[in-house]
Design goal:
This protein has 200 residues and is of the alpha/beta class. It has nine helices and five strands. Strands 2-3-4-1-5 form a five-stranded parallel β-sheet, sandwiched between helices. Helix 4 links the parallel strand 2 and strand 3. The longest helix is centred in the last third of the chain and has 15 residues. It is elongated and about 55 Å long. It starts with 19 loop residues before the first helix and ends with a helix.
């Protein structure tokens, strides 16, 4: 797959999990990021949904956008159990929620009305829910990576993990092979590479 990767070249496996700060250093921002930030900055009350399949970068982009905005609480619902009371405790100006589907429907409907600007990730659009709640929304579809993005993100990950100055190159043939097997599912690509190079 990727030629000449050896243990001595890296401080850790570059294809494993990264901290948020490290993720922001390797991210290739989605083309919607500037518009999403503009939507957050305007005065209209609305839900902003980042929608797409698993492994397409929704959570990373949600955190990245929040870091650029610099305000608003973030709830990662897949990592918490006792969040309901805190979420529904009262009105808020801005809130970021990852994996909104972990919140029951009736609680979601309440939340849409409580928060002025709600930015969420979801696997499927919840347009009917917003309409039912009488809340405006904007949806942004997130696909995975294309060839150029994948090559750049993998190169940046290896660069971040390097212990020397010679950065291995990823060939176009390697990128094409990964995309032919996994499509645009970036999470599955990373999982495969992490396991393949588990000795790094």
């Amino acid at each position: 797959m990727i030629d000449a990767l050896s243990k001595g070249d890296f401080n850790y496996n570059p294809f494993g999990g990264l901290s948020d700060d490290e993720s922001f250093r390797v991210i290739v921002p989605n083309r919607h990021v500037d518009q999403i930030i503009a939507d957050i900055d305007n005065s209209a009350k609305q839900v902003i949904e980042l929608v797409g399949k698993k492994g397409r970068g929704k959570t990373t982009h949600l955190k990245y956008i929040r870091s650029l905005i610099g305000t608003g609480d973030l709830f990662e619902l897949s990592k918490r159990e006792n969040f309901r009371n805190e979420l529904l405790s009262g009105p808020r100006e801005l809130l970021f929620i990852d994996s909104i589907h972990h919140l029951p429907l009736l609680d979601r409907l309440k939340l849409y009305k409580l928060v002025d600007k709600l930015v969420i990730t979801t696997h499927i659009s919840r347009a009917f829910e917003y309409s039912f709640s009488g809340v405006k929304y904007k949806g942004y579809r997130f696909g995975g990576v294309n060839k150029d993005q994948l090559q750049l993100v993998l190169q940046r990950r290896m660069e971040l993990a390097m212990s020397n100055t010679i950065l291995p190159k990823i060939s176009e043939k390697d990128i094409d092979k990964l995309l032919s097997i996994y499509g645009d599912d970036f999470r599955s690509i990373l999982k495969f590479l992490y396991q393949k190079y588990s000795d790094l």
